[in-house]
Design a protein that fits this description.
Layout (H helix, E strand, L loop, with lengths): L1 H15 L8 H8 L4 H6 L16 E5 L6 H14 L7 E6 L9 H10 L4 E6 L6 E2 L12 E6 L1 E3 L12 E5 L2 E2 L2 H9 L6 E6 L7 E4 L6 E6 L19 E6 L4 E6 L4 E7 L5 E6 L5 H6 L5 E6 L3 H6 L8 E6 L5 H10 L6 E5 L17 H5 L3 E7 L3 H13 L5 E6 L7 H12 L9 E3 L8 H9 L3
Parallel strand pairs: 1-2, 2-3, 3-5, 4-6, 5-7, 6-8, 7-9, 9-11, 10-12, 11-13, 12-14, 13-15, 15-16, 16-17, 17-18, 18-19, 19-20, 20-21
Length: 460
Amino acid sequence: MANKAATCQEIKEKVCEDRISVLPDALLVQILLLLPIKEAVATSILSKPWRCIWTLMPKLVCKDTKHTNSKSVWWFFEQSLQLHKSPILEHLEVKLGSRCPADVDVGKLILKAVERNIRLLDFNLKWSAKPISLPKTLYTCKTLKKLILSNKILIELPFEVFLPSLIKLELFNVAYKDEGSLIRLLSSCPVLKTLIVVREKNDNVIKFSVKVPSLNSLVYINNNDDDGVCGCGCSSSSSSGSLIIDSPQLKYLRVNDFSEDGCSIESMSPNLTMARVDVGSPPNENFLTYLSSVKFLHMTWIDETEVFCSCVNYSQLIECMLRPCRAEYWVESVMLLLDNSPNLKVLMIDTKGIGESDDLRRWSYVPECLSSQLEILEWKKYGGTRDEKQLLEYILASSKCLKRAGISMRYSKDCNDKMKKKLRKELKSMPRASVSSELLFPAKFKWRSSVAQHCLFDLF
């Protein structure tokens, strides 16, 4: 009986044994990284060995929500950073909402991060106060590889800066003291590969100049409402502006700008392979010339569509996504582009919101890409208007190498099941030059270059 009692005691002790605490500190840190910071810090009360584990975490994330007290969140995070002991802070993410008190010392937090050899800094400030300047030390950090600044941040750089390791820079709705501050920031990044810019209102920059020799990827989204007042409260001298690109190594370009601002390219590599251009009016002639090297093109337009489609020889283009926003002349524009794209293999058309024009069209020629190259056609939001039907019939009847045509329908509100069935039957009966081609419902193909885009952006 004594032996049996001893055995039961041993089993009980094994069941109660704390096996997690005996794990190596490095593994415990990885476990804590899966928890919110408050819960990770709370583990310090578990036992003496746990007291300092959280201070070795290489990643700290602080986010306040509408359900939290911003002041207490800030105090908690500031105290946590003071106790932090990791020699290298890989990742610091701070997102403070509109209720954040205006007297918090943001600069102090940045300085502590720089002292700990910060690699990735994501700072999002949405308080109700004016935009603030960040400490000079941030702009001379030798270890910083990725920097994300959002909202109430003022880029004010009257001094020379140097960020020798910065690979990726993201600027979301920030304000600039002047154009010189923007130029100094970008020129301080000798190895910058990816730049993402979102402009929400007039930010005190008229000529947005991107002169970065090492740049591979550029995303520029301009939501400027041209109200004449910059994000830092200054009055701009003009409501018009422009984007100027001087980056000879650029491979991926996205421009989303439906304002009246212009866009020009001063120097760009002919190796530009991917471009997404969503604009209200066409950029200058030099910009269009450099689009001639792209292999993947995503285009949304409103006005002067024939400029995009007739003035550029897309000799390298193999995949194209077209999204016209107005009914007038959109079919002619598509035909012009097809005629200038002899190697096009994948064509995607999205006609959401397109109405019907007054002109009937007849084409007496067949673009080279239709007779010898086009393999996949995808049509989204096909509504069966006369224009859409004419173009679809023409492409199907002319594409000798077509393997698949996918169509996603856009039905009117009064379209019943019987009408839907009739419309599909009409599509299936359209003559096809390629007898082996399939007609599929709905369209499933995605813009293939978006995968490559993510690969370019995933640099850190």
